[in-house]
Amino acid sequence: MEIIEVSQTDLATIEGNRHRTFRAIATPLISEVILDDIQQNQRQRVIVICNTVSQAQGLFRDLDALNFEDKLKITLLHSRFLPEHRAQKEADIKAVFSEQWQADSYCHILIATQVIEAGLNITCEIMHTELCPMNSLLQRAGRCARFKGEKGEVCVYWSIQINPENGELGDRDFAEEPTEQKKSFLPYERELCELTWQVLEAHTQSEQVNQQVNFNLEQAWINRVHIAADSLQAERRKNDSAEFERKFNDAIFTGDRSVADDLIRHVDNRNVFVWNEPTFIDFDDNQQINPKKLLAFSVPLTTLLKVWREVQNLEYQIDWIFKRIESPKGKAAETYNLPICITVRSQNDLVYSWQILVNPRYVYYDEKIGLLIGVNVEGNNFISPNKPPKQAVSEYQYQMDTYVGHLGCMWKCWQESFSTISLKNGTWVKTKYGSVRHELLNTGGRFIQQKILTQLTITQAEELFEYLVLLAIFTHDLGKLQIKWQAVMRGWQAIAHSSFKGKPPKSHLLAHTDYNPEDEEQKQALKAYEAKHKRPNHAVESAFLAQYILQQSLFPLLQNEFNADNQQIFGVMYTVILAAGRHHSAWAKGWEIKEIRKVGDIQLHPEAQNAIAFSWRSMTRWLSKTLPLPTEAPNLNQSCYPIRELDLKRFSLNQMEYLQLYWLVVRALRLCDQRSVQL
């Protein structure tokens, strides 16, 4: 990487003689302050930035109430607008706050949140902004006196105060009402904001307060605030290393989403949906919905918690305020079932809900103010609209696939590129897929050679990686060879054949059935069928049975040919077991002892051994001839397998290289699985 220094002459050219000043103001920003400044200085373009949506909404209503003479054109922009309304607002803003704008008889005011910190090439004469960390503040300030020759002022306020008539709205995003003694800095860290304020206060009290704040001074401010803050964070991480390791383990190895967000960036928001049809308002728990097709609003958890507490403090009881949207669990997880709604009955329920349905009686939306939620909000029949059409990767219905045929198609996707005709937005187009082998073989081989079996040549390592992918494909659907799985799926396929022009099941062992999810009649027919014939799980069952296959096909190779030690043998074999068990859900945990009796023994179909043997012969003939395969084809030699405990979360931090190998193997497995339906 080459570091390029910018000369002072170049900086002066870049800054283009613009003049931007900063001032820290301890008194709260109120709507009257904005109006007084406009009138005293004949402002034409003003930008106001709040840290929360609710403050922006409250200030918008305050300022709108002062617009007696209709001389102000006020626009509100934040993240709780529908995409079409936000896009129109941004287009209007870009026109009015542009470099080439022609003055008119109005003063144009933009009240916004952080959404304007990047991506909008706009400018203004004065910016009123709430205190935020220095890096964000300078991003905001870049929208004041942005272009050559312009002059602008950036006024930074310790707090924003909404007038009493709109105070409840302005405080909506705070779990507790902020006070001067207990200032909330949401969504930012208090330390960063306080360090920023110290720098700005010192500048405001200096003789340089009316001078241009240039790039060099901005860089000095960034260093003073964020180097100090980074040092504090580094020290905090050092002191909290044990807690970090616990969260890392919980997120990566056990799939605890409640800590995963903390490890990346703490944005404590929830996706909110609204329905208004009478049949949905008071629907029972376990009602199915499809949030993937609907637009969601991202709302802070603090906002929802405040609404929840308001509901608890009501002197009367309402039917419900929130419902948790969650994916089906247990046996329903591997069916076509949609997510279901469960009433939120406690604050803890709400905290651990990620997609939430809100009672439409307490939701208001319009294109001026955006989304409002609260017990005192009068609903206006708003519903969550459908997502706009987008270029789909492919549109296809599920088609009947035999067990042997499905594995063969997946292995072909690994080996070969192919072209197919597929639907994209209702139009048939030709699509070309490269071979998954070409995408991942070299990466997988190099990883094995460098991180796990360092004694191998790159050719040997690539051959081993390809063999692991073959074994993952070969074992991932073994659970579908159960008698009960075949019985249920063949029953549905018979209905698909007789009622929906599907293929006849004949005597084939199936991997997939015919099903068109866009056909409402089929959807209802499948729902009725599965109400009587629950589809058995198969993924964890596949992982369990894979142990027997790998003991015959992988263990001898690793031990005898590649001289792997016990830890390496276990780690490599476990990557394939994990890929088979988690090919539907990345957080499948296996079976605990208490679950064994409930699951029952695995009874294999009488034709299972023939299907396994045929698949092995057809797939392995394409492997490298230098790879020593077992002399006898691996198979499941029992008709019944009593199950026992199976742990799919055994990797830990000191086995990270095997988890990474699993990611490569399961990536290959999923790509082959997805593409095979296109053949």
From TrEMBL:
Alphabetical list of SMART domains matching this protein: HELICc (SM00490)
Every HD Cas3-type domain range: 451-676
Keywords of the record: Antiviral defense, ATP-binding, Helicase, Hydrolase, Metal-binding, Nuclease, Nucleotide-binding
Pfam families given in the database record: Cas3-like_C_2
Record-stated family: In the central section; belongs to the CRISPR-associated helicase Cas3 family.
Protein name: CRISPR-associated helicase Cas3
